[in-house]
Amino acid sequence: MLNNVKLFGRNYLKLKWNTEHLLIGCGNPLLDIVASVDKDLLERYNLKPNDAILARDEHMHLYKDLDEKYNADYMAGGSVQNTLRVCQWILGTPKVATFFGCVGKDDYAKILEKKATQDGLNVRYQYTNEAPTGTCAVLITGTHRSLCAHLAAANHFTIDHLQKPDSRQLLESADYFYISGFFLTVSPPSIIEIARYAHKRKRTFMMNLSAPFVSQYYKEQLMAAMVYVDILFGNEEEVETFAREHSWHAKDRKEIGQKLLSLPKENSERERIVIITQGHYPVLLFQGNNIKEFPVQQLSREQLVDTNGAGDAFVGGFLAQYIKKKSLDVCVRCGIWAASQIIQRSGCTFEGKPSFQE
C-alpha cells in the first residue's frame, strides 16, 4: 500500500509493505539425525560420501544405529523447510514464509513445529495417522555429507490440504512459490496445482533440481512442472545428470545452463532464470543471453564443519533478497554468503543477527 506523507512542507512517498505470507514453500518436513561417522558405516549401508538418496529397506536400521552408537544431534530439516528457515533468519521479520508439508501425529512433529516456528516460519503441516514423522540421516565424514531420507509421513501429503479455505487464503497472499525436486516423489499434483496458480496470476514459481535421482527417476513429472518454472536452481552434479538424461551432448556447464534456459515455458513473457552452484567454484547465473559468474568465498579446511544444508542456505539467502526485489547480483551474493555461514556450523543452523551487506 502506498501512502503520500507530507514532511517538512514536502510530499514524500512512503512505502508500507505487508510482509506476511509473501513466500510459499512445499516440501518434505524431516527431523534431521546428524552424526559424524566413519567410512565403514557408509560402506555397510551402500552410501556415498556426498549424495542424497531416499531410504530403502536396507537402510531401515541406520537410524537406530545412529541413535545407539553415535553422538547424534536432532534438528528441524527437510530441504525446503531449511531454505525458508534461512530466509526468515536473514529477513528478521516473522511469517514472511509459509511452509506446507506432511508430518505424523507424534512428538517428532511437535519438535519440528516448535523449532521452525522459533525461526519465524509459518508452518501449515498436514497431519497423518498413517506414518510417523519423516527422518533424514545426515552422515558427516570430514567435510562431506551423505543424506539418507526416510520420508514416512512426508509421503502422505495430498492436494486437498492446499484446497482448504485457510490454505487457499495463504496461496492468494503469496507472490512467490518455491518447490523442491524432492517433492516430485510425493505429490506431483500439488506441484502442478501451485505452478498453474502462479502462472495464471503472473507470480513467480521456482524449483530446485534437488538431487541427481530426481532427473533420473522422475523425469516425466519434472518436465511437466518445468514449463512453469521461472527460476531454476541446481548444483553441478544435478544439472549434469539432467543433461545426460535428456541426451544433451553439452561440453560444459555453461552450455547446459543455456539449454535449461531455453526449455519450453508457458509464460514466454517472463524469461526463465537459471542458477547453477558449483561448490567452491563460481556460481553461474543465466539470464537472457548473459552468463554471469560470482566468486565463492574460500574457506580453510578448519572452517569447514558441515556442508549439509549449503545448497538450501544458498537458496534461502537468494530468496531473502529476491522477495525484497533486490537485483539478481545482490540475490546471488546473499546466497553465497548464507551458504558460507551454514557450512561453518553443524547442520543447517545459525545464530545472532545476519551480517550480510549488499
UniProtKB/TrEMBL annotation:
Q: Which UniProt keywords apply?
A: ATP-binding, Kinase, Magnesium, Nucleotide-binding, Nucleus, Purine salvage, Transferase
Q: Kindly indicate whether the keyword Chaperone belongs to this entry.
A: no
Recorded E.C. number(s)? 2.7.1.20
Q: Which domain of life is it from?
A: Eukaryota
Q: Name one GO cellular component term.
A: cytosol
Cofactor or coenzyme needed: Mg(2+)
Give GO MF terms, alphabetically: adenosine kinase activity; ATP binding
Q: How is the cofactor bound?
A: Binds 3 Mg(2+) ions per subunit.
Task: Identify which top EC class this enzyme belongs to.
Answer: transferase
State if ATP-binding is listed as a keyword: yes
**Pathway this chain belongs to:** Purine metabolism; AMP biosynthesis via salvage pathway; AMP from adenosine: step 1/1
User: Pfam families per the record?
Assistant: PfkB
Q: Which Gene3D superfamilies match?
A: 3.30.1110.10, 3.40.1190.20
Q: Where in the cell is it found?
A: Nucleus
Q: Which family does it belong to?
A: Belongs to the carbohydrate kinase PfkB family.
Q: What does this protein do?
A: ATP dependent phosphorylation of adenosine and other related nucleoside analogs to monophosphate derivatives.
Q: How does it assemble?
A: Monomer.
Q: What is this protein called?
A: Adenosine kinase
